[in-house]
Structure formats: structure tokens, C-alpha cells
Amino acid sequence: MRRLISVAGVAALAALGLGFQPAQAAPPAPPAHPQAEVDGVAAAFGLSADQARTRLAAQDDAHRLAAALPAAVRQQSAGEWFDAAAGKLTVAVTTPAAADQVRATGAAAQVVARSQAELDRTDAAVRALVGKGVPGVYGWGVDVRNNEVGVSVDRTKKTAVTESFLSSVKEIGVRITETTTSPKQQSGTIQTGNPWWPGSESNCSVGFPVTDSSGAKHFLTAGHCTNDSNQAAYGASGQQNKVGTSNVGGTHSVNGQEGDMGLVAVTEAGWNLSASVNTWGQPAVTLSGAAEAMVGDSVCHSGNTSHWQCGEVKYTHKSADYGNGLIIGDLTWTTACSLGGDSGGGWLLGSKATGLHDGGPSQCVQNPSDGDMSLFQPVIEALNKWQLSLVTSGGTGDTTAPSAPGNPRSTGTTSSSVSLAWDASTDNTGVTGYDVYNGSALATSVAGTSATVSGLNPDTAYSFTVKAKDAAGNASAASAAVSARTQAGGGGSRTLTNDTDYAIRDYQQVLSPISSTLTGSAAASIGVSLTIRHTCAEDLGITLLDPKGKAYALKYSGGSTCTPWSGARTFTVPATASSPAAGKWQLRVTDYGPGDTGTLDAWSITL
């Protein structure tokens, strides 16, 4: 998994039932570690208050060190996490030389077998195999501490389809964890603290107070609480104490692969936003910003039912399948307790907003398995999506610019577009997005680390740079320039290319994507050209996947002898069903034999 913000917190919006507070002068800056966080972490992990403070101070140091890692180290990282036992940031790398570079920064190094690119490709292969869902399979994603991709299965829901899926993922080196429980998206009717009611439905919890670009008031919460368009939102049960309107225009709620996030417009008189978090009798916490959580972090959340609970981040960017076709990507999984009615409540990293509560167990347990964990939607993604600023104690006094985006590169061209990618920037409060410049002109703005610039001229050279921005509007220095040339027009030829190298390893799959912005349907005969270096062509199976997931077999594996493959081969695919030209096309290369080495050098598709 799976970002203009200021930063803000769980909206304790007082006056009437919701807990919105009257507007007041800004409170003093919060301590480095709010007492409620210290107490919650101490209770969650069986520590004294002093031990909890020591752990949290080390966690802060790990985040500062992670943000300052040199680009040369970051490019070789296969993941990073906070090791609470050692009190240090740990970075996974694949070579001893890279480990030495990590240790020189003051972080701990762990040499692992799989690179980040390999983990990402395996994760993509699992997502492709999951499709619209597999019975019993409720979670999958990268486990950075174990340097592997894991799949979580509720064994009580397994079928023959599940066993077939598990057999397939075992072949590509995926770890399988079986449990007797699985998470669910939560709802409830317990009327304690700061609930809010969507219409006449059961209550959810208030997340973070935010303002839009015009200064209008809103609060963020869970998307599964805001699925109905233009629904009245109330601060008390029985449709009493109206606050405003949920999911205005039907465009402010997401509950699917993109995430679980929703927005409520606060329009009624008497309701004011507050950065104060309801800590349920613990010392006050006032939100000071937003941040991304990393594996190993101690985090806390405030919810209507379970109140103030803390735990450890076990996974980030891990997908969840709640059944009935509801799959949500890029969630953060934690050991903290949560219960029905907590949905939409705010998760915090210290005094910084980090997530919106998504789902969890039916009851809290000690030492939870994957099936008993609590999940949240990273909040920065929601802030970016709707260009929101969080309400905080200090407004937007941040003056620190993000670091410049690293390693900018072209990932594909057409006669009218160039696709780009770059490495993520870092910031003291959180990067909210990137601006891509064509020369000195702003070409597009995106939340993630890739973009396609369209409307270009054929057979023309262009130079692009990228700048990162944060919640306060601070912009980074420009990245290094990346040059790219669009393809020749040539009578309507529509050829796209991915020239990124992918290692082909025994019994593993490679998924190489090409993103198309072309219009209409693909050609009746699709041309595919690929360049591969491999010691045994007979061990390779190659498939083209269209944007709808339809598979076109290009080459089957099989043969009694091995012959090397070195160079380009061309295939023609008769499109037996209408495939859209626009979207993500993927080339899947699977190695079915032992003792091979190889690389997918490049491939192109003519649509």
C-alpha cells in the first residue's frame, strides 16, 4: 500500500453530542511525547512510563534517520523498520557493501535475499492471482522484516479454489499464514464519547478535522461510513443535532482498492473544529502535524467504542479482502485493540495524525494473529485526494521544504506522451504531492511517484523535472532533469515501451507494466516485441495481460532440452475479445524450471 495538507487530528468537534469545541486561541506547542501516548504505549507493551518514553524517543530518532538516508542507500533499500528491542532504525539491503553504507549512517543493516523490486513484483503477482477475491484469503502484502510477501488465510473459509490459489502462490515463494479468524469493517451503536451518525444508520467515529482550499470546514472519517451521497450527518442518535452533509455530490467517499476514506462537510451553525484529541480520560493530546507510520512504530487510536488504544505496526501497504468483492489496498495493520463503532476514528503517531480506522476483530485478544489485527487507512492519501488541510495547534507554520525527488526516469513513451517515475522525497511533516514540469511549465500534479505527461508532439525531445510539496505549500528543489523523446507519429502507430530490466529467477514471476493513455479499443491484432536474455527458453511461460485482466498467452513452457534465449522476439496476438487501449498492460514472465538465470531487458506493445 496504497497525499495540500496541514495536519490535524481526531476531531473532537464539541458543542452538542459530537464533541466539537468552540474556537479558541491556539494552545501551546505539545510535548514531544504526549502523556496519553506514553501511558497508552506503556499499557500496550507492559512497560513503565520511563521505558515507554525511552522507546518513543528512539522511535523518533529512527524516523529522523530514515528521512535523512542518502539517496545511494535508499535506492538499495529493500525496506526499513524500527526495531524496538534494539532501539534503532533497521534497513534491509541485498549486499554486504550496501550494509556497510547503511551502518555508516548510524542505522542497523540486515542483508536479505530479495530486493525491493523483487518484493514488489511478487506482490503484484499475488494481486493478479487474487483478482476479485479468493475464499478465505483476507490479506496479502510485503513483510519487510522477513523480506517476503505474505498471504493471510482464514482456514475456516477455505475451499478447493483457495487450495488452488495457495498452490500457485507457493510456487512464487510466498509465505502463507493460516488463522481461524479474519478482520472485518466495523460498525456499532454504542453511544459513548464522540460518535457521529450517517442518517439513521449506526454510528461511526469522527476522524480528523480539515479545511478545504476555500476554508470550509469538514472532517475525515471512514469511506464505508460515507458511502451514501449527500446524506445528513448527525452528532446524536435519532437524527438529532445535525452537523452537516456526508459525501457531498457523491465524490467524497472511497471504499475499495483505492482505500477507505470519506469526508463530511460541517455546515451547521455552532460547530467549530478543534485539534484536540479525545483521549478518554488520559492527558490531552493536541495534533501538531501528519506523518507516515513505519513497521515497528508504536501508534495509538481514539475510537467511540474501544476508546484510547495503542499497539505496534506490523505491516504497511498490505491489502485486505473483507469478502463480497470488497478489496482494499495499502492499509496499515497493527496489534492495537479496536471494536465495532471505532470506524473512521483517528490514529496517531505521537501527536501527528497518521490514519483513519478501517477495520479489525470482533473482539480484542492478547498477542493478536493477522486475523485479529486492527487496520487503518493512511491519512495523507485522503488529504491529498481532496486537497485538504488538517486543523492543528500551530496552523501552517512549517517552513521546511521537502528533499528533492531522486532518480527521475522515463518509463515509457508514445507519440503524444511520456511516462515518468522517481524516488519519494522526505519532509519533516510529510510530502503531500509532486509537480511535474515540462521545461519551466507545470505539466501535471500527482500524489504518488509516477506520472504521465500527455498532449505532446510526435518525435520531439522533452526535458522534465519534478518538485515535491508539503502541507504548508513548501516546494523542494527541482529533481535532476530527465530527457525523453516521443515516438514518431507514422500513420497512427500506437507503440508503447517499458525498458526497465527485471531479473528472471527460478520458479518466480515477473510482472512488467506499461501504462497507456491511448483512446478507443486495442487493435484486432496486438503486436508484442520482447527482449530477453535467459539460459533456458523452454522453462519460460509468457503471458500478456490487458487492463481488464484478460490473459493472452504468448509462449508456453516445455521441452526436453534447454536452449538459450538472447535477443528480441515478436508475437502477434489476435484479440478475441475487445480490450481497451487505455489502462495498465502487463507482461508476465514465469520461470518454471531450476538452475536458470536471465533478465527481461525490454518489451513493447503496439495497440
Task: Characterise this structure.
The protein is mainly beta and 607 residues long. Helix content is 13%, strand content 39%. It contains seven helices and 41 strands. The strands form eight sheets. Strands 8, 9, 10, 11, 12, 13, 14, 15 and 25 form a nine-stranded antiparallel sheet that branches. A six-stranded antiparallel barrel has the order 19-20-21-24-23-22. Strands 33, 34, 36, 39 and 41 form a five-stranded antiparallel sheet that branches. β5, α6 and β6 form a beta-alpha-beta unit. The radius of gyration is 25 Å and the shape is globular. The N terminus is likely disordered.
Largest sheet: 9 strands, antiparallel
User: Which range does the strand content fall in?
Assistant: 35-45%
* Overall geometry: globular
- Taking the alpha carbons of the first and last residues, their distance comes to 30 Å
Gyration radius over CA = 25 Å
Mean pLDDT: 84
Uncertain runs are 1-30, 187-193
Number of strands: 41
The tally of helices reads 7
Helix content: 10-25%
Structural class: mainly beta
